[in-house]
TrEMBL record:
Pfam families per UniProt: GMC_oxred_C (PF05199), GMC_oxred_N (PF00732)
Residues annotated as domain Glucose-methanol-choline oxidoreductase C-terminal: 429-550
Protein name (Swiss-Prot/TrEMBL): GMC family oxidoreductase
UniProt domain Glucose-methanol-choline oxidoreductase N-terminal: residue ranges: 221-330
Protein family per UniProt: Belongs to the GMC oxidoreductase family.
Keyword Oxidoreductase on entry: yes
């Protein structure tokens, strides 16, 4: 029997970027908030002098324990889904800060095209450009309406970058200038400029300079130590909820932060939520936390799973096309890249940062003509310098054995002499790519796991073929001795594919028939439930999702304040 606690105005499930931003904004407005985080509390000092590749990258200390909770995966509805037993594609954060602690820090805005993708595509290319199986839809809001929220997020996080003319209007420049341009990035810059493109430095949450944000949080500049992805930042140079918004929320005295608190159900009467049930992961004790508003902000997979396990919203059915919870799950398309091998040149590949990179915008969104192409949208074409790691990085040309003397020889030869021209492509929703509850497997608390049905589509395969030609051309201009280009998209493999960006499942839109939440991330079917995070994206752009996630979190916080004042639907 769960122990019932006193009712609170707002309970937030998950204290990553989305939940922490919302908690900070509400507590600053004088609203009492209970923040529930299933993992442990963290602070910047926990990462001091902890450059342990084995512990954090390979043994995934900051990630969810897959022996207790995971997802199941299959590539089509005829297969039986099996549990993901070790981290490959997805690295699901666990603990205060969530994925906002272990992310790389690349912080883009989505394009104006993204927010009105269906209307703009049909206007330019005709209704037949979008095939019936692709569930493309406008988001119910425009880029211009979202621009102020992007600006707020970037100022809070201190994003370092430079204005790009092929992207949307900006009301302000980035708060800090771009990161340093290393010799690796200069190679890409020279080649792309020769080809007529306009390269720009990737917008970065790794600070290029010391910075104090509007909340008075001061952080130091990046040291380019290369321990970003899968690691917390010991300097606080990488924007992280733990060093930016959570301290602000705590300072108000209005945040009741409870770690080791795993929410298993949202209590509801079918039309409104009454609170949540959570388990203390140490003692196993169960608690009921009543609340006026429930904010679900616990990552793409768990947002959908929690709603499905709680009977909130109508589950998506791929056969009939009805329902919305689990609909429009999207990933990203990362094949089409080229690897460059140099025999007589070396670079400092072991220094870097998670968002240190350079990119061209000409192949993103609808910035090029798709009239004669069998796909829409595009890819960011880039070179990055994250900083190689001795255990993880043993690169060798395609065809080299994966072990033995030749492998050792080739990996040593190219240890400091391999660059990449990468492609990160957009992912369009397809009616057969979705999330639901697994009928067989359960977590440690007896709750059904989330089942992911996903494979790459014809759209993805055509996009990869096109972008492979682009990356190959740039690679040739960079003058290596050998180039390997991955020009075909293989079937999806949860244990092999390496992009970590998930979106959809609880998507936003202008009407309840085709979406789960409105543009304030308020559920159509339960007006006092707000579902924040990339689960709200109706498709995935070619950019990293965090900047857009952060912008919508600020908008959701604004909506919650309005709801507490007036109630009802906000749109």
């Amino acid at each position: 029997m769960a122990k019932k606690l006193p009712k609170v105005p707002v309970v937030v499930v998950g204290m990553g970027w989305a939940g922490s931003i919302i908690a900070a904004e509400l507590t600053k407005a004088g609203i009492k908030v209970v923040g529930l985080e299933r993992g442990k509390e963290r602070k910047m000092s926990d990462y001091l002098m902890v450059h342990d590749e084995l512990r954090f990258q390979h043994r995934t200390e900051l990630m969810q324990d897959l022996s207790k909770e995971t997802i199941t995966s299959r590539i089509n509805g005829k297969m039986r889904a099996l549990p993901m037993r070790h981290y490959g594609t997805f690295i699901v954060g666990d603990g205060l800060g969530g994925a906002g602690s272990h992310w790389n820090g690349q912080t883009y805005r989505f394009l104006p095209y993204d927010f009105e993708i269906k209307s703009l595509t049909e206007k330019k290319y005709g209704a037949n450009k979008i095939k019936p199986d692709y569930l493309l839809q406008d988001w119910g809001i425009t880029y211009e309406e979202m621009e102020p929220y992007y600006d707020t997020f970037e100022k809070m996080a201190g994003i370092s970058g430079e204005t790009v003319e092929l992207y949307g209007h900006r009301s302000n420049p980035y708060p800090t200038g771009p990161m340093i341009k290393t010799p690796v990035l200069e190679e890409f810059e020279k080649a792309t400029k020769k080809l007529g493109y306009k390269p720009y430095m990737i917008p970065s949450a790794n600070l290029s300079e010391n910075y104090e944000n509007p909340d008075g949080i001061s952080r130091a500049a990046c040291q380019y130590c290369a321990y970003c992805e899968n690691f917390g930042c010991e300097y606080g140079a990488k924007a992280d909820p733990v060093v930016t918004v959570i301290p602000v929320a705590k300072e108000t005295g209005n945040l009741d932060l409870r770690t080791y608190s795993n929410v298993t159900r949202i209590l509801n009467d079918g039309t409104k939520a009454t609170g949540v049930v959570y388990v203390n992961t140490f003692t196993g004790e169960e608690f009921e936390q009543p609340a006026e508003i429930v904010v679900v902000a616990s990552y793409v997979f768990n947002n959908a799973r929690l709603l499905l396990n709680s009977g909130l919203g109508k589950p998506y059915d791929p056969t009939t096309g009805t329902g919305v919870i689990g609909k429009n799950y999207c990933y990203q398309v990362s094949s089409g890249y080229s690897s460059l091998y140099y025999n007589d040149r070396e670079f400092n590949l072991y220094g870097g940062a998670g968002a240190l990179g350079i990119e061209i915008a000409e192949f993103t969104g609808d910035n090029f003509d798709h009239t004669n192409e069998n796909f829409i949208h595009g890819s960011g074409i880039r070179t990055t310098q994250y900083g190689n790691r001795p255990i993880a990085n043993n690169n060798a040309p395609i065809g080299t054995p994966s072990w033995g003397a030749d492998f050792k020889k080739q990996s040593i030869k190219y240890a400091n002499s391999i660059l990449q021209v990468k492609s990160q492509g957009a992912s369009m929703p397809h009616k057969q790519n979705y999330l639901d509850l697994d009928p067989t497997y359960k977590d440690v608390y007896g709750m059904p796991l989330l089942r992911m049905t996903y494979d790459y589509t014809e759209q993805d395969r055509e996009l990869v073929k096109y972008m492979a030609k682009v990356t190959r051309k740039i690679a040739e201009e960079m003058g290596p001795d050998h180039i390997d280009t991955v020009g075909e998209q293989s079937p999806f493999n949860v244990n092999v594919d390496t992009n970590t960006h998930n979106t959809g499942g609880v998507i936003m839109g202008a009407e309840p028939e085709t979406s789960a939440v409105n543009t304030y991330l308020q559920m159509w079917d339960a007006e006092n439930v707000f579902v924040a995070g990339a689960s709200a994206f109706p498709h995935n752009s070619c950019f990293n999702p965090t900047g857009t996630l952060g912008a919508f979190s600020y908008r959701a916080a604004e909506g919650i304040v309005k709801y507490l004042q007036q109630g009802g639907s906000l749109v």
